[in-house]
Amino acid sequence: MEPEPIELFPRERKQIAPGAVHVPDWLDAAHQRELLRACREWARPPAGLRTVRTPGGGTMTARQVCLGWHWYPYAYARTVVDGDGSPVKPFPDRLRELGRRAVRDALGEGAGQERPGAPVSPYDTNIAEPAPAYDIALINFYDADARMGMHRDSDEKSDAPVVSLSLGDTCVFRFGNTESRGRPYTDVELRSGDLFVFGGPSRLAYHGVPKVQPGTAPPELGLTGRLNITLRVSGL
Ligand SMILES: O=C(O)CCC(=O)C(=O)O
């Protein structure tokens, strides 16, 4: 077996903007393999991997499958209204738990639990809502030429942080500001197993994937291309 490449310097977790944190290597190799296996199951029809068409007549280059709620431009439904019409696949408990752990590890205990407008009391420890109940997964598959334009995740009614996991090829993830698709933005290299969480003041920041670097997936994962698993709370 080839030895694992050793980083000259370990990649550090980094706050990219207030409420937006990159945690390198959050998923170990076994968890990546397990998630990939599950994604392959979820991608099967009915309600499987599909090409997303935009209202202007274009198509997204990243193909997608949804769990829990079906996202289509620009709303949610319980069936694949822009595809085979099947009911969306259920949202698995293990992804709900993964979402909670991701937020806790990236943003700290209690993050994403505040009741909007609730008074902050040093005495009442029950003031926080329960941890965010993730109920949407969008799984995006990128081949070598796929990309995703700058957009905001704004079709949800909840302001709980968005959790993003990467498997396979490395990509350039562009994380911008809440005002426009343009600068200022930060380009972050997301590799297989990396976690990116954005909430709070960054929850509605524009973001996108301008580039995937083909052939950079860990060989032992057995994936050609890139998978992104985005977890959100619908509030619906
Ligand atoms: O692939 C990614 O890392 C980003 C995905 C994304 O922005 C989305 O699904 O809204």
Written overview of the protein:
By secondary structure, the chain is α+β, with helices and mostly antiparallel strands. It is built from two helices and 13 strands; from the N terminus they run ββαβββαββββββββ. The strands form three sheets. Strands 1-2-11-8-13-6-3 form a seven-stranded antiparallel β-sheet, covered by helices on one side. The chain has a four-stranded antiparallel β-sheet with strand order 7-12-9-10, with no helix packed on it. A two-stranded antiparallel ribbon has the order 4-5. The relative contact order is 0.22. The protein binds 2-oxoglutaric acid (AKG). 2-oxoglutaric acid binds at residues 138, 140, 148, 153, 164, 173, 207, 209, 228, 230. One of its GO terms (molecular function) is dioxygenase activity. This is Alpha-ketoglutarate-dependent dioxygenase AlkB. Its cofactor is Fe(2+).
Could you give a short description of this structure?
With 236 residues, the chain is an alpha+beta fold. 2-oxoglutaric acid binds next to strand 6, strand 12 and strand 13.
Please tally the β strands and state the result.
13
The hetero compounds bound to this protein are:
2-oxoglutaric acid
Any idea what the shape is? globular
Q: What count of domains describes the coordinates?
A: 1
CATH superfamily: Alpha-ketoglutarate-dependent dioxygenase AlkB-like
Strand content: 25-35%
Radius of gyration: 18 Å
Report on the biggest sheet.
7 strands, antiparallel
Taking pLDDT < 50 over at least 5 consecutive residues as the criterion, the unreliable ranges are 114-127
Q: Return the CATH architecture.
A: Sandwich
The N- to C-terminal Cα distance equals 48 Å
Main sheet strand line-up:
1-2-11-8-13-6-3
Q: If you average the pLDDT, what whole number results? A: 92
Q: How do the SSEs run, as a string of H and E?
A: EEHEEEHEEEEEEEE
Number of helices: 2
